[in-house]
Amino acid sequence: MIYPDSVFIPTLGISIQTMVHHGLIVIIGFYVLISGRAKLVSKSLLGVSALFVILFAMAISMNLLFKNVDGTFNMFFVGPYYPCHLPVLSVIQAKFGYGVFLVAYVLGFILVAYITLLISMGIKKLIAILPPIPKKMRYRKQE
To answer: For the whole model, what pTM was predicted?
Structure first.
């Protein structure tokens, strides 16, 4: 969604599904953070990283198994049959090869998740030290 060059393709249905899917992921993520349902502690990164690695392995397996299904089957953009077109990662794949690219992909996404966690923890701490909203400024229902 941030880099739409890889999101929109000639198949309209896939483009719509991609935007709805990723848009809902963002909305659910903000809801989980705002509602307090997510534990904002550094060790929670271990669990989500393990889940990501499992899904990543599944994507690579499916890319290998379903190579000839549609001619462009490439989950997570990590298939060995197609060059990566994501910024930075495409340069890594071209210069250092597929193995280094895969390691950089996993470590890069985990790093972004960790940075997001740190930012969320910082926002939570900032909100905790802010003074409460005065009663006269709070929203009141009109009856």
So the answer is: 0.77
